[in-house]
Amino acid sequence: MSLRAEAPPAATTVRRFTRAERWVHRTTAVLMGVCVVTASFLYIPEFAQLVGRRELVVRVHEWAGLALPVPVLAGLASRAFRADLGHLNRFGPHDRRWLRAALRRDKSRESRPAAKFNAGQKIYAAWIAGATLVMLGTGLLMWFTHLTPIMWRTSATFVHDWLALTIGVVLAGHIGMALGDPEARRGMRTGSVSQEWAKREHRLWRP
């Protein structure tokens, strides 16, 4: 009889994201981070004083903004990424139930059913995608000043600046939510999550 203790069984994991999907997320996050950081150096006086080469910061900001859609467009070559876009763009009765519970501040898991993505994640994805396109369009109007009337440029600058502030707030909330869920971060980092977490947080998801 062996006195050696048996090792506990390894936790069962399920695949949540492929390598291509994680690449899209990380690359987009880096580009968005560059846009936010350079924007803060351009618009916040205390930060602007730390930068000696403002023209360089402007160029980095512009090119990072232009590159923002590239990871998503490249990700369309991945079947898994296209499938996830389909999940994100599809709302069902369980999503409406999730939103009603969120509005009531009901945090019980029974009241917030979710498939692979919950309703909050779907709304965030749709909003950030739309905001990125608006930022890209207004940024181009501000960049190519000789092609548009001054009224267009003034309006574009107003929308670009205030939407940038809103994006910063929303991104801070997104990061805060991620920091509060280590298993979700693990899924984005490694591609896998525990089966227990998947059943608890996304019980309608069938990997």
Plain-language structure description:
Residues 1-10 have low confidence and may be disordered. The chain is built from 10 helices and 2 strands. Strands 1-2 form a two-stranded antiparallel ribbon. By secondary structure, the chain is mostly helical. The longest helix has 30 residues, at 150-179. The protein has helices at residues 19-43, 45-48, 54-67, 69-75, 79-88, 93-103, 119-143, 150-179, 182-190, 195-201, and strands spanning 13-15, 192-194. It starts with 12 loop residues before the first strand and ends in a 6-residue tail after the last helix.
How would you sum up this structure in a few lines?
The protein is mainly α and 207 residues long.
